[in-house]
Structures are given as C-alpha cells and as structure tokens.
Specification:
Layout: H1 2-13, E1 26-28, E2 31-33, H2 38-59, E3 67-70, H3 84-97, E4 113-116, E5 129-134, H4 141-157, E6 162-168, H5 172-184, E7 198-203, E8 211-214, H6 215-219, E9 231-235, E10 245-249
Parallel strand pairs: 5-6, 6-7
Antiparallel strand pairs: 1-2, 3-4, 4-5, 7-8, 9-10
Helix pairs in contact: 1-2, 3-4, 4-5
Bound molecules: zinc ion (ZN).
Zinc ion is lined by residues 224, 226-227, 229, 249, 251, 255, 257.
Length: 259
C-alpha cells in the first residue's frame, strides 16, 4: 500500500509545471465566475498524471494484469443490499447541497483515476488504487463532501487497497476543517480501521512539496496544549530536526503550540 502511495507521489512530481496553471478567476460576491473552466483543466492534469503513472506501472510486477483507467464511468455505489448509513448520507447530501452537486449520478460514478482488474471484477486483491482529484481551490463544500463520501464507499464497500483524494491548489487547513465538519455531522464514514488506507494528498503548486496524510491520522490528531484547537502534522523546514514530522497548532501563526 505504501508502495502505491510512493508511486502516486513520484508520478505527481513528474507532472510538468504548465499543467498546474489556473486561468484568471473573476470573483463576484465571493463566488468564482468561470469555475466551469476548471473541469477541462482537471482532465488535462489527470491525463498527464496518468501518462506519468503509466511509466512506473510498466516497470512494476505489482501492477501486472491490472488496468489503469482515467475518467472511466464505473458502477459503484449501492445495490438493493446497500448499507443504510450510505443511503441516509446520500439523501442528506442531496437535500443539503442540491444546488452545488449533482448527486443523481449515484448508480454510476466517474473516478478520476483507477488501477483495477477491469469493470466487472470487484475482488479485494484486484482493487489497487482509486483517486478523486480536485484542482479547483474554491470547490464548494458540497463537492468536497461528495468526494469524501465516495472515497469512504470505495474503501469500505469495494475494498480498495488505496483510496486517495488528491488536492491541487487547495488550502490544507480548509480541507481538514471540511473533513472534521463531515465527521461531526455524522455522515457515512465506514469502519475506522479502513481510514488507514484512505489518503489525502496536498500539492499546493508546482513548486510546493507533496504532503500526504492518512485519514486515520487526520481524525486522530491531538489537541493543542496552548489553545485547545486541533493540531496538524507538519514538517520541520529548518534547524536540527529539518525534515522531521511534528504536531503543530492548526491556528499557526496565531498560536505556536507544538508537541
Ligand atoms: Zn494552539
């Protein structure tokens, strides 16, 4: 599983700079005007990612006999025997965010990237990797919630060994806050143990370092000893501990609490 994550990060770091550029946005009353321009950009980015990933894929026996797909419709989601919690979350999200997302595609969804054994095989050992990517830094809450919801389903109902939410240009603190809101609102999240194989990857810009966390770690982050806010995992940039991970207050620079 960690190998897969490393391969994703390696491929991501090979995506050229031009794929990271965003169009000029117009903001009007806090809304992004022209946000629909981002869908083709996301496709372009993921296509390039897929090309880079394919080079690694060709060389590794772990991916032998598996297909990699990019933007293919896949029949996920529930059948008649669906988990009641999934159904309930679907209905709640649909009611609350109907102006932001189209939840009606619930019988078929289109993950951004997949490594699996084909459309009709849903066996555990063949469900290698699935990625939901987002390039829009202003994606509304409903869209983020939908990605989180779908990712929990991939991991729990379809046994994906590695499920990733890839966030390019997205503010890390905002995303972590949205994850906490999702959990606190008691939407479907499956089994806690499975959150160890769900990852979120942040890449803020072409030059920024990749940051990767398991959802398990994000949900179990400690509380700041100074101000009682949540803490986030950071990497020391300088000094004796450079490169090491540590817990820092999420409100930094307002509070500099660390453990
Ligand atoms: Zn603090």
């Amino acid at each position: 599983m960690l190998d897969t994550i490393n391969d994703v990060i390696t491929a991501l770091n090979k995506v050229a700079k031009r794929f990271y550029s965003l169009p000029d946005f117009c903001f009007h009353d806090g809304e992004v005007v022209g946000g629909e321009n981002l869908k083709p950009l996301e496709l372009r980015f993921m296509h390039e990612f897929s090309t880079q990933f394919s080079r690694i894929y060709e060389e590794k026996s772990a991916y032998k006999k598996l297909d990699y797909d990019f933007e293919v419709p896949k029949r996920f989601m529930w059948s008649e025997k669906a988990n009641i919690a999934i159904r309930e979350t679907y209905e709640r999200l649909d009611r609350k965010f109907h102006s932001q997302v189209n939840m009606q595609t619930y019988f078929t969804t289109i993950p951004d990237f997949l490594v699996h054994a084909g459309q009709h095989d849903i066996q555990t050992e063949n469900q290698k990797l699935i990625i939901e990517a987002k390039l829009n830094p202003n994606a509304p809450k409903g869209e983020v919630f939908k990605d989180i919801f779908h990712t929990f389903i991939y991991s729990n109902e379809y046994n994906f060994q590695c499920s990733i939410m890839l966030l390019v240009h997205f503010d890390k603190e905002r995303w972590i806050k949205l994850l906490s809101d999702y959990i606190n609102d008691k939407y479907y999240s499956g089994v806690l143990e499975n959150t160890k194989r769900i990852f979120v990857i942040f890449k803020n810009s072409y030059d920024a370092e990749v940051e990767c966390f398991s959802i398990y770690d994000l949900l179990n982050y400690p509380i700041c000893p100074k101000c009682n806010e949540k803490m986030v995992l950071r990497t020391a940039r300088q000094g004796f501990n450079a490169g090491n991970k540590f817990w820092g207050c999420s409100t930094y620079p307002k509070c500099n609490g660390t453990i």
